[in-house]
């Protein structure tokens, strides 16, 4: 039983480290170069392929239009990408 517990803790530690690494790598994808690749009309999946998973996602619907905001943060940089019906409508924020 002790050996099984040790093995479980080792696996848990490995998965935890992989999660931290994934978060760190995701943050580094918010660069000026990558941000300049995001264009109006791009699909959400295209943006995620360039910038990775957003730190926050906010959704709303009004007048039959679905709107979603992806928020990316890296240090002092905060960028919001607003989608309307699944396509980039506008990119706003500050990149430092």
Question: Topology, pairings included?
Answer:
Elements: H1 2-27, H2 32-37, H3 44-51, E1 56-62, E2 65-74, E3 77-84, E4 87-94
Antiparallel strand pairs: 1-2, 2-3, 3-4
Characterization of the model:
The protein is an alpha+beta fold and 96 residues long. The protein is 42% helix and 34% strand. The chain has helices at residues 2-27, 32-37, 44-51, and strands at 56-62, 65-74, 77-84, 87-94. Strands 1-2-3-4 form a four-stranded antiparallel β-sheet, with helices on one face. The chain is globular and about 55 Å long. Residues 30-79 form the Outer membrane protein assembly factor BamE domain. Keywords: Lipoprotein, Membrane, Signal. InterPro entries: BamE-like (IPR037873), BamE_dom (IPR007450).
Index terms:
96 residues; alpha+beta; Beta-lactamase Inhibitory Protein, Chain:B, domain 1; 4-stranded antiparallel beta sheet; 3 helices; 42% helix
Q: Can you tell me the CATH class?
A: Alpha Beta
Name the helix and strand elements from N-terminus to C-terminus, one letter apiece. Answer: HHHEEEE
Q: For the report, how would you describe the main beta sheet?
A: 4 strands, antiparallel
Low-confidence residue ranges: 18-22
First and last CA, distance:
52 Å
**Rough outline:** globular
Q: Helix/strand/pairing class, anyone? A: alpha+beta
Characterize this entry briefly.
The chain has helices at residues 2-27, 32-37, 44-51, and strands spanning 56-62, 65-74, 77-84, 87-94. The protein is of the alpha+beta class.
